[in-house]
Amino acid sequence: MKAVRLSRKTRETDIALELDPAGGAVEISTGIGFFDHMLTAFAVHGGFGLRVRVQGDLEVDGHHTVEDTGIVLGRAFAEALADKSGIARFGSFYIPMDEALAFAAVDVSGRPFLEFRAAFSQAVCGQYDVCLTEEFFRAFAANAAVTLHVRVEYGKNAHHEVEAVFKACAHALRLALAPKEGLLSTKGVL
């Protein structure tokens, strides 16, 4: 694994991102406070160094900012993992957040797929539309080329439900990226 620096500029967003899967500083600024909180939790719980700066068309809404951040973060993970050798490949984790429980399972497989099952209790947390959580993880999984399954088992508070999802995904990824000798594939390639 290696540290990666990426940027992406469109008519809707301008993103600069630095990822170090081995750890480091965490500095997040997207213009959406709750999303900053989620990305910070993701980095801290995954043990990742992550710096993200996003200027998005928030006068429209948060969709482009959140989705495009998922695209760039996914691409950074894909680049950092290169041939996917030397990692455990699979990881899964449950996170309880007060009354909420979320689960995530990941396969760093080279095959992008997202299965997302969550009925959030409220539609908005701060300035963040909770439906964007699925958009973020869809963009992330597609661009990281990972298979990701996410479930919110239950909950009553959308803040807790969404935060549990981000933390569960972070811990699942942390486990999948744990050192393991060779390439975990019967095919010999991913």
Plain-language structure description:
The protein has one domain: 2-Layer Sandwich (Ribosomal Protein S5, domain 2), CATH 3.30.230. The chain is built from 4 helices and 10 strands, in the order βββαβαβββββαβα. β1 and β2 form a beta hairpin. The chain is an alpha+beta fold and 190 residues long. α1 runs parallel beside α4 (158-176) and α2 (63-81) packs parallel to α3 (132-144). The strands form 3 sheets. Strands 1-2-4-3 form a 4-stranded mixed β-sheet, with helices on one face. Strands 5-6-10-7 form a 4-stranded mixed β-sheet. Strands 8-9 form a two-stranded antiparallel sheet. 34% of the residues lie in helices and 31% in strands. Belongs to the imidazoleglycerol-phosphate dehydratase family. It comes from Hydrogeniiclostridium mannosilyticum. Pathway: Amino-acid biosynthesis; L-histidine biosynthesis; L-histidine from 5-phospho-alpha-D-ribose 1-diphosphate: step 6/9.
Strand order of the largest sheet: 1-2-4-3
Going by CATH, the architecture would be 2-Layer Sandwich
Average predicted confidence as pLDDT: 94
Total of DSSP H or I helical runs spanning 4+ residues: 4
CATH class: Alpha Beta
How many whole angstroms does the radius of gyration measure?
Answer: 16 Å
Q: Can you summarize the main beta sheet? A: 4 strands, mixed
H-E order: EEEHEHEEEEEHEH
First-last Cα distance: 15 Å
- Strand segment count: 10
Superfamily at the CATH H level?
Answer: Imidazole glycerol phosphate dehydratase, domain 1
The percentage helix is 25-40%
Low-confidence runs:
none
Structural class: alpha+beta
* Domains, number: 1
Shape: globular
